[in-house]
Amino acid sequence: MSSHRLAATDWVAFEDELHQVAGLDGLTVRLRSQTGRMQTIMLAVLLADGSFRAAVEPPPRTLEENGAGLDPAGVLEGLNEGAKKAALELEGHLLEAVTGYRSGDPLTPEPGEPRAPYDPADPALTQRARIQAKAEELSVSERWLWKLWARRTEQGLWGLVDKRKARIRNPLRNLDPRVIQAIRDQAAAERADSTATIGSRFLRRTQNRLDADHGAGTVPLPGRDTFRRAVAHLLNTSPAAPAYQRASAANQPDRTFGNVLATRPGEVVMMDTTPLDVLAFDPGSGGTISVELTVALDVATRSILAWRLTPLGTKAIDIGLLLADTMTPELMRPGWDDALRYQMLRIPAERLISVDERLAEAAARPVIYPETLLYDHGKPYKSDVVERACTRWKIDLQDARKLQPTDKPQVERLFRTIRQQYSEHVAGYKGFNVAHRGRTVEEQARWSIDELAEFFAEYVIAVYQRTHHRGLTLQGFPDLHVSPNEAYAMALGAAGFVDCPREANAYFELLPIAGRVIHPYGIELNHLTYNAEILYRYRKAKSPYPDKLWPIRFDPRNLLHAYFLDPADGRWHVLRWTHALAEHQPFTDITLREAKRLIALRERAPEDQEEVARALTALQNRTDAPQTWTRSDRKRHTRDQHRAAAQSRDIARGDAPVDDHPPLAVVSGTPEADAEPGGWGEIDLSSIEAAHVFDPDAL
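The structure assignment produced for this chain is given below.
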């Protein structure tokens, strides 16, 4: 049988609650719960109870209990002037009684000091006599003054403060701890919900949680006013606050931001995507479209190495090509000042140009070979495209923790700088959330995505890269703030210049791969059939690849084409969709899924190529007619047009693939299933514009 020794101030567990022993008299014990409830119980009954546990850990002390453990000087500073003045006045009386001077220093006497009853030079006035005189003056007992002097000797001025005026008040003292826990748990459960009132939905759900955890009616909630005060005291962000504030507060870490260190250019490159706080204008439809910004930031120099503005929904191929952009110089634009050329970096530019001739026409933006890529948990970053790109260029991958933006604070802070210096000053700025959005944003938007990208490039080269950053300093010179360009130029002196790879076929090698069999009619990809003259050579040949399939590359931004690498000469060839017609604009995988959905509504198989062609033509015709445009149609049209143009620019950066196809067929009207193609016509797929449609309202 185990024995228990109880003493006053010990903590015990009883009836699922912690209690402190307030007193013992041999037969009974007096307990005080955490909530302040007092009870007296027979000692034998307490020891025999099944819920009794002795020698438990005391609950963590809070600032609201009694102020124990607080810095006395800190509490003293927070007192009102009356309480501090009373303590100083009392200290002056004590010092005068002990030393004869209110300041305690005979070298700084006040006028009239020392007074006769407290003159230390008078041998007849002992210290006890002076204390007695002070007690008579203040109408208190001598014992009380000696006690105050002892407190002052031990605690300083804090010992003379009236503790009634310095008491730390606890508004939760009489609140059941189970209610406190339920409030916190319910607030955590509702952090992603829409905002509601505290005294209605939040109160009801908290009571439901208590009933579910402890039984119906076991733990009642206090009144509405008391409940509101408790919620305001417990939660930093009220449940009635805007939803975005509660979500942001819940995502804040419980400690300081992470500290990612980099001492040389390219050692750590952070990459992230965020919605741009600007609406882009679509000149084809006259509407607007949301834009996403993806950037690559060098941690050592805080340089923006590469960026891409895309319609909402960044693809994995965009991330892979952004990596290639970090190692490719940014070309000067017509009209830019010569001061923005690469030579402004004040490094041995001529010597570097002899190593990389591309720098001769480059703008002043560092060209860096990344060593480690730190990225988010977004789906495009976790794709096979990014992994293959990093494997090819020997770049280490390091992903940040999910929903922990503080793992990459530099790039998160960069987005705020971009919003303040760039987005806020662009027509069509919509704010970073709905609460900050103006009423006429869509009417103010006037710049297309390509124009926004050009403006952003000018902002990076002319402003950001040349601005001194408060968080960017040089080692050994903590007070010297430099710009990203200056930091890069100085870092080259210590780390040297690394020549970046120049690969003409990098675009094709970053595209997604699909293993396919070469049939007599071509290859099948995404329920579409592609063919080209080059495939006739390999229709009966076995694939040399381990899986016995031929790797076919495709760009999800433009599914009119696929790409095939000829193993005989190492050249890339264009495979065209066999049912592509001149009226077919370049389309993305999202548009293809919509066309398949329309086919499924007609109860036809998506493998029916002619049905796919008719559905795609009908879909594109509908999105090409302004009088029938819906919001989703406008977005789809603009997205396909922009991504096709981006795909055309990316493919033009390297060696052109072999395209031995005849021009696309041009037909009038909707093609029938058994219709023969008409004559051939020339068309540039990267610059298709919406056809003019007669509008009777314009007359």
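Interim note for the steering committee: The longest helix spans residues 631-652. The radius of gyration is 38 Å.
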